[in-house]
Design goal:
The complex is a heterodimer of chains A (665) and B (155). Chain A contains 32 helices and ten strands. By secondary structure, chain A is of the alpha/beta class. With 155 residues, chain B is mainly α. Chain B has one domain. Classes of the chains: A alpha/beta (665), B mainly alpha (155). Chains A and B meet through strand 10, helix 13, helix 14 and helix 15 of A and helix 3, helix 4 and strand 1 of B. Strand 10 of chain A pairs antiparallel with strand 1 of chain B, so a sheet runs across the interface.
Chain lengths: 665, 155
């Protein structure tokens, strides 16, 4: 007989260590996908423990269970409709008071709940006293103290899950909303009770409260019911905004009554986290420190990775010489040597840089610093017409633009969201990094790290200027106000940082073996035909394509080979480097691509800089265009992003190249 | 450790970072403008003596760290006890940038001795020494001595 299955959902505010706890419980037995019909990520995993298969679902992080964002709707719909056996709410023990708001809403969903009091070490270190027994009594839920980043309390939490399942009795508490609201709740509940299908599917008290709060999503559920007319009549007779405010107010009254009974601060101290915040969010020093840290990350990405990229480069040069020299027929030797090894090798050479950059970004994120970065940039963002929350997708864009555009879903206002989606492609993603490293390394020597840093800064600057332009022209209006939580600073764990680094780095390696491999084979074929032509010469198909587009890009300092690389880079930006590997690293004695580029008289430091600028800004890759279409629901905006990107890239690269020439470079 | 000691430390470190940062920035700018070789640019005698490579951005960052220290010294001097936060973060920034250059030096070491890259022929550990590292060592020693005395009780 198989193990008994327990379905558990993890709920909680953002930044409370929910994903860390999920990883600590499930280890490698995870599945990542999307919630049905939306692009919010869904993570599930299974843990076999004491004869039970505990299936864990990681719900999106939310501050409440209203219907203001897709994350909130997804989280609460899962709890209500999928009815997990147990909901574990992960609560940040060092931020208990604010986390209780979600607790009060979860209680109304009439589900079995366990509270994992995470980051207890931070609370205790700060001098807080937590009264666990009293907390259990008041909230009518088992409380387990955890420190997920160090695997503390995980087994005890799983024990409670099993006990709660075996107990199989509903333990719950309700918030009282006062006579006036309670009488309306009762009235609505009575009406809802007349529809058995609603009664079977939803907690009616919760539904009544949400209807009083004017929840459009819940109203839509009731619309299909025969009771909708009576409900609408009742709701039309009250001021829903007033009720919504009053209900929220009562929740805070309850929290204010509960909190002093479950936690006291015996010693209010300015902790190290507070001290760091005092400086890093300083009005004058905050932004320079942020820029300095980002520069440091890029400097290190370049300087520390150099010996490792050199090692990989030597391996591929060796492979190109030895593997292809013994092969017959010649076209096969050329395909493997010039095409696959030259092209895919050129891309894989930069794996160390990619891994180091993602590791450093993960350290910044895991420490809690990136949330501060959004905070310190908020004022600036507001001035240029962007929502403060937009900074998070922009930062995520450093990894890959596709999830960054999806992350814009957390922005409630449609206009704010649209602007963010349209400007994210200007943020330099990991796929563009190899282009900078290749060209900056070849032409800028010791200043390469600084050049790469300025490419990233340029991406952000163009994104914010574009946002300002869009806000004052086609997407007029003011950004919505921004409330954001500051997680406490933590020493990021090595495991989490390595997992994050691997997730992003592996995607890059996977692309090298799939779309980039396909790309280099196509480019090699075009460079080899028509039959009898010299490989990669101007008379080959690839040469014809290059010469066809070259007049458009000549004012930017690009020759036909660079033009070809950019044309094929439309599919995926890594192909720019792969194409260069195929087209420049050719001949009987293949040298490293960097050496070939330096030796080519048609590329100067200035044209290399112009090429970096153009590669940064010209149209998003195909995957990004697809996700823009999906997220905006229209090809109109995807085509707009494509054309706008090309025009902006051409203009700025033109200014760089022609301006540089005028200055005598 | 008293707050006065922290103020004095912040003052000394702040001035050192700003002065060295200025030398680094100015020599970096002079070198960039003159396009002279590494040993010929103006002011190279002072810079070489203190192992200061000409580098505009790195110079600006040294000055920024110096400002953080001086801000802290000024707050403590004005009686704002929480000014120690700036001393603490100044030390952390100093350690972060020292760490970055130590890792960069490790990369150079591998290039010179493991990969025998021609560009790094004759590279020695002194080539890697720069103000971020030796000032960082000073910060590290201070941090180890004061690490438990940084939290501030609010009354």
């Amino acid at each position: 007989m198989g193990n008994t299955k327990i379905r558990v959902a993890l709920a909680g505010n953002p930044n409370v260590g929910k994903t860390t706890l999920f990883n600590a419980i499930t280890g490698s037995r995870q599945h990542v996908g999307n919630w049905p019909g939306v692009t919010v990520e869904k993570k599930t995993g299974v843990k076999t423990y004491r004869g039970y298969d505990i299936e864990i679902t990681d719900l999106p992080g939310t501050y409440s269970l209203t219907a203001y964002s897709m994350d909130e709707i997804v989280a609460r719909d899962y709890i209500i409709e999928e009815k997990p056996d147990i909901v574990i709410q992960i609560v940040d023990a060092s931020n208990l008071e604010r986390n209780l708001y979600l607790t009060t809403q979860l209680m109304e969903l009439e589900t079995e709940m366990i509270i994992a009091l995470n980051m207890c070490d931070l609370a205790l270190e700060r001098g807080d006293k937590l009264y666990i027994d009293r907390m259990q009594e008041i909230l009518a839920a088992p409380i387990v103290q955890t420190v997920a980043s160090r695997d503390i309390g995980i087994d005890e939490l799983l024990d409670r899950v099993i006990e709660q399942k075996q107990d199989d009795k509903y333990h719950g508490r309700e918030i009282g909303y006062g006579d006036v609201i309670e009488s309306k709740v009762l009235e609505i509940e009575k009406i809802l009770l007349t529809d058995p299908s609603l009664q079977k599917k939803y907690p009616l008290r919760w539904m009544s409260i949400r209807l009083l709060e004017g929840d459009g999503n819940v109203k839509a559920k009731v619309e299909k019911s025969p009771v909708s007319k009576a409900i609408n009549q009742l709701l039309a007779s009250i001021d829903q905004e007033e009720y919504e405010a009053e209900i929220a107010d009562k929740r805070y009254v309850a929290i204010n009554a509960i909190f002093p009974q479950i936690c006291t601060r015996c010693n209010v101290r300015l902790t190290k986290s507070d001290m760091i915040d005092r400086v890093l969010t300083n009005k004058y020093l905050g932004i320079p420190i942020f820029l300095a840290l980002m520069w440091g990350a890029f400097e290190l990405t370049f300087a520390f990775a150099t010996p490792f990229t050199d090692m990989i480069e030597r391996v591929f040069v060796w492979l190109a010489v030895n593997v292809s020299s013994g092969l017959e027929p010649q076209w096969l030797a050329s395909l493997i040597g010039d095409g696959i090894i030259g092209g895919v090798g050129a891309v894989l050479t930069f794996v160390p840089n990619i891994f180091i950059l993602f590791f450093l970004l993960s350290l910044l994120e895991g420490s809690g610093y990136l949330a501060r970065a959004a905070f310190i940039m908020d004022r600036l963002m507001y001035k240029i017409g962007m929502h403060g929350k937009s900074f998070i997708p922009l930062l995520m864009g450093f990894g890959c633009n596709v999830p960054a555009i999806m992350a814009a879903r957390s922005i409630e206002d449609e206009k704010d969201r649209l602007i963010t989606i349209l400007v994210v492609p200007f943020v330099s993603c990991g796929a563009r990094l190899p282009i900078y490293i290749l060209l900056a390394g070849a032409f800028f020597g010791r200043q390469a790290g600084t050049v790469v840093f300025f490419m990233y800064v340029l991406g952000i600057v163009v994104a914010v200027i574009s946002a300002k332009l869009l806000r004052s022209t086609i997407v007029k209006g003011k950004p919505a106000p921004f409330i954001m939580e500051m997680p406490p600073y933590r020493v990021p764990t090595l495991r989490t940082s390595i997992v994050h680094m691997w997730d992003n780095g592996a995607m890059y390696i996977k692309k090298a073996g799939t779309i980039i491999l396909l790309g280099v084979v196509i480019i090699w074929s075009l460079a080899s035909f028509p039959w009898g032509i010299e490989y990669g010469s101007e008379g080959s198909y690839v040469g014809m394509i290059g010469h066809f587009f070259a007049p458009l890009l000549e004012p930017l300092g690009f020759d036909w080979k660079m033009t070809v690389a950019l044309v094929f880079g439309l599919v995926a930006k890594e192909i720019v480097v792969a194409s260069m590997g195929v087209l420049y690293g050719v001949g009987d004695n293949p040298a490293a691509l960097t050496t070939s580029l330096i030796a080519d008289p048609s590329i100067t430091a200035l044209s290399a800089l112009s090429l970096m600028v153009f590669s940064l800004l010209y149209m998003p890759c195909v995957a990004t265009l697809g996700v823009i279409k999906k997220e905006t629901g229209s090809w109109k905006w995807a085509i707009f992003a494509l054309i706008y990107g090309i025009v902006v890239a051409w203009l700025i690269a033109f200014l760089v190249y022609q301006g540089g020439k005028l200055l005598g470079y | 450790m008293s707050t006065t000691d922290k103020m004095l430390f912040a003052l000394i470190m702040g001035c050192s970072y700003i002065l060295i940062g200025m030398v680094q920035l100015i020599t970096g700018a002079l070198k960039a403008l003159s396009e002279a070789s590494m040993t010929e640019y103006a002011g190279h005698v002072i810079a070489d003596g203190l192992f200061i490579p000409p580098d505009i951005i790195a110079g600006m960052i040294l000055m920024l760290i110096g400002c953080v220290f001086l801000y802290g010294a000024s707050e403590i001097h004005s009686g704002v006890h929480e000014g120690v936060a700036y001393v603490y973060v100044g030390i952390l920034l100093s350690l972060i940038f020292a760490g970055i250059y130590v890792l960069a030096a490790t990369g150079d070491l591998l290039e010179a001795h493991l990969l025998k890259n021609e560009e790094y022929a004759g590279w020695s550990i002194l080539d890697a020494l720069r103000p971020e590292i030796y000032l960082g060592v000073l910060s590290l020693l201070t941090y180890l001595k004061w690490k438990d005395s940084f939290e501030v009780a609010e009354n």
